[in-house]
Amino acid sequence: MTLKISRILHAGYVFECEGTRIAFDPVVENPFSRNCQAFPDVRFDHAQFRDVRFDAVFISHFHDDHCSFDSLDLLDRATPMYIYCLFDELFEMVRELGFTDVHQLRIDAPVRVGAITVIAREAMDADVDSMFHVQAAGLNVLNVVDSWIDPDMLPALARFAPWDMVLWPFQTMREIEVLSPSRAAPAPPQLPEEWIAQLAALKPRYVVPSSCQFVQEPWSWYNHAFFPITYRQFRDEVGAALPDAQVVRMNPSVSFVLDRDSLVAAPPLSWVVPVGEQDVDYQYHGHATPPRTADIARHFPALTAVQHARVMDYCATGLLEKYRGMELPEESFFEKPRVWRLSVFDHAGEGTHFHYRIEGDQIGLIAGVPDTLSWTTEVPFARLYAALEEGEALTSMYMRINDAVFDHQTEADLLDAELVDDPLIRCLFNDVFGAYQAAQLRRIQERGQVVDPAG
């Protein structure tokens, strides 16, 4: 017996065994998650993909680069959907999209689909995501997705060693560091020590550098600042530490047949079409000076008058209402009186500046320009609008925090501050679930493509 494993993109895979075909996190868009450009580049033949029938689809978590309704919209609505998520709202939206066989995955509860058994395993952040343990053809494959393995979970997984294959998220994304690049510590020059220790405990026959596989817009400085680890570095370090394991790169569309003794190349997925050079690698330049937010904003189109008014109204009133209704985090930087400047830049690079006085859960606009500042946030108009109306994620907003030098006491206080304590981040993303999928669902419904579950 054999197991065929094919790569879609990012954390997306197709597993096939004895006539059973299932998909994991199938995102068939490029770009996906708004501005994630496939790396290496691919396109998708959606006409072919519509004809593919899966015996089940498994989704590891609700993040938009794993659960995209624009991709799910291409699937037969009778496809059984198994989703790990703690929020009922996602299941309601998937059913509203038209799917009729929707299930909530439980940790350590096996789901058998034909010749394949899938077990959701607990990830580091169990409130958000999961890992997948796949059993088929007498083989064990661990799809870590883009989570990390909790140390308390490792002994349970190690009992299955040696694993036949581990799909390992090989990047340490610096999505927080790029928010405040002038204050970020340099990236470590090697893989995290715990990765090697955990892989050693799993004793895999084959390791696939998984997840990521994207860059931002061609002009984006993030392309050299987000991902510090290259495919080559991962291969060399893992190969040196685990001489009995083979590191196998799987670009989009690539397929292999795995059995107890070997891994053999197989025909690729026909609906994933490689474009250009495929064995590309990341180039990290952590020392490079990032462009100004004003210059970044010039890359985005002008908002309409209505869209511009939406952003202005939010900065003047909506943000204040949202902030006052939230609970302040413990030991927040804003427990003490602070002056915050929010700067929003338009397509011409012109900035509109809002000043607020914050103390605890109280916030108010300040007329004029204050003498001193305690915190600064910059963002393009277009990206703030997208976050308000289109479910834009923090990682693609090009937000810049505290790119300034403050007075001595403020600088001392900032040493213990969390960047995610930023008032704009909290107002946009705290207590908000499924904004990306909700925006997609609205667009799909407006196109009239939602299938009635009743037929």
TrEMBL record:
Gene3D superfamilies: Ribonuclease Z/Hydroxyacylglutathione hydrolase-like
InterPro entries reported for this sequence: RibonucZ/Hydroxyglut_hydro (IPR036866)
Name recorded for this polypeptide: MBL fold metallo-hydrolase
Organism: Massilia violaceinigra
Lineage: Bacteria, Pseudomonadati, Pseudomonadota, Betaproteobacteria, Burkholderiales
